[in-house]
């Protein structure tokens, strides 16, 4: 019985970590319906996890370049290998406001994203996980560094 209690405690730790980690996590099924939405995503989107469950990501977030995202995601489903996108390729996947409006002049949150396959016990990939990293500070620093060079050219 003690082992089961330990497993339950560990499970709750995982849930707590998932909800409080300082990166966005969203799990999508093959129809691009949201199955998991963590605290970071809730805090920055204003959408509660219960209201996003089973919602189509493209209907909920019209700013997502659907063709580009589908192309990346389909390769993750098919090849069972991760895909990455940098803010330098596209500034964001989700148009979230920056959460430091007084100290940061960015018009939005700059994001790096990774899409990872979630392999089932049968070896199939029926779900993917989007990991969203807030890289606004780094992007703003780099853009400020490049600005003087662009002016002198």
Describe the sheet with the most strands: 5 strands, antiparallel
From the alpha carbons, calculate the radius of gyration and give it in angstroms: 18 Å
Trace the largest sheet across and list its strands: 2-1-5-4-3
Count the DSSP helices: 6
Sheet/helix structural class: alpha+beta
Architecture (CATH level 2) name: 2-Layer Sandwich
Tell me the name of the CATH homologous superfamily. Answer: PAS domain
Number of strands: 5
Compute the separation of the termini in Å.
71 Å
CATH topology: Beta-Lactamase
- How many separate domains? 1
Write down the overall geometry. Answer: globular
Order of helices and strands: HEEHHHHEEEH
Fraction of residues in H or I helices: 40-55%
Q: Average pLDDT, to the nearest integer?
A: 90
CATH top level is Alpha Beta
How much of the sequence is in beta strands? 15-25%
Question: Which stretches of 5+ consecutive residues score pLDDT under 50?
Answer: none
